[in-house]
Backbone:
């Protein structure tokens, strides 16, 4: 018996929830007998209808995960539990936990004090009690070894892939409603480095080019990013949270996609952009070079001059990566393959 901790189904989709949804869909295609366990109110996730979900308990979120979920498991012969979004029940050990990154340890100032302390305690303890740790890049594996003191042999690297809905929607043709623009897609949080991106864009001084920012704020987790200086500029547009169809249309029509994070465990939006044939500029830090390989352009996220220079060169075709070469990078990542690797780990524990 293998179970998935589907607490993520009761939350709106952002990065880790999208990963968890995709992996879970791939898991049940391989083994339809897997149990998907969730708190009530799973309607926030558009993938919910794809799962045969066992809704249990009366609480929600972390309280559900730490109390009602392990109680159910212990009453049902302690099956293997797969946790996909960084945390796990800390009083249950027959489990696998996916840890995406350790930003909350490296840069606690990016988080509210409560969130930074909460994640540090809960993720650290989840890692200790879990029989196996899965992470999404070799960069994150080294971080987990170093900062959580987890033995290397306990950690398996299994990467993410381009979301299936993005792959499906990219085959359609879309009208361009914005003219020439640079696109940014990320949550509005300090680590995503939007201030330097905007300042570099202003310095670029291209009246024919807009900057479009897609993403929203999670005030309960991250400290505020002060973007007031950019919100009255006509050529900078903040679209908030958008549907996958709108997102793909933006990727396909953008002159350039910029993802200048200071720190990433994997970084899914650059893969999405590359798969849609969009020229992609990313930071030369953390996991991004490992993930994007020779399919993307790189810059120093701390250096506004370098960001501006790279944007100008890409926009004027002074740096060229063929779209076919960029797409080829994304093809080595596959949800089915990743899910099969996770199931192989689970089988060892069953």
Residues:
């Amino acid at each position: 018996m293998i179970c998935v901790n589907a607490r993520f189904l009761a939350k709106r989709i952002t990065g880790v929830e999208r990963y968890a949804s995709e992996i879970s869909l791939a898991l049940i295609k391989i083994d339809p007998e897997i149990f998907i366990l969730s708190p009530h109110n799973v309607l926030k996730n558009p993938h919910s209808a794809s799962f045969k979900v066992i809704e249990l308990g009366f609480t929600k979120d972390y309280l559900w995960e730490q109390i009602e979920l392990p109680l159910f498991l212990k009453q049902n012969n302690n099956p293997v539990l797969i946790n996909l979004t960084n945390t796990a029940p800390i009083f249950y050990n027959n489990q696998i936990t996916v840890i995406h990154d350790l930003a909350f340890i490296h840069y606690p100032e990016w988080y509210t004090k409560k969130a930074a302390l909460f994640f540090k305690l809960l993720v650290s303890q989840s890692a200790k009690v879990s029989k196996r740790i899965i992470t999404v890049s070799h960069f994150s594996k080294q971080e987990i070894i170093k900062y959580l003191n987890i033995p290397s042999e306990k950690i398996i690297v299994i990467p993410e892939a381009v979301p299936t809905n993005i792959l499906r929607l990219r085959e359609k043709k879309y009208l361009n409603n914005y003219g020439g623009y640079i696109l940014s897609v990320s949550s509005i949080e300090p680590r995503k480095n939007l201030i330097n991106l905007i300042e570099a864009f202003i310095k670029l001084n291209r009246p024919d080019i807009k900057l479009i920012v897609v993403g929203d704020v999670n005030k309960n987790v991250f400290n505020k990013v002060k973007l007031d200086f950019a919100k009255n500029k006509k050529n900078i547009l903040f679209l908030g949270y958008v549907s996958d169809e709108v997102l793909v249309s933006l990727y396909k029509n953008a002159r350039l996609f910029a993802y200048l994070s200071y720190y990433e465990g994997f970084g899914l939006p650059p893969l999405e952009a590359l798969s849609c044939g969009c020229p992609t500029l990313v930071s030369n830090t953390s996991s991004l070079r490992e993930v994007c390989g020779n399919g993307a352009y790189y810059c120093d996220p701390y250096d506004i001059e370098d960001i501006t220079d790279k944007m100008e060169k890409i926009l004027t075709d002074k740096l060229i990566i063929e779209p076919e070469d960029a797409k080829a990078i994304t093809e080595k990542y596959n949800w089915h393959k990743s899910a099969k690797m996770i199931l192989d780990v689970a089988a060892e524990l069953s």
User: Anything to note?
Assistant: The chain has a mean pLDDT of 93.
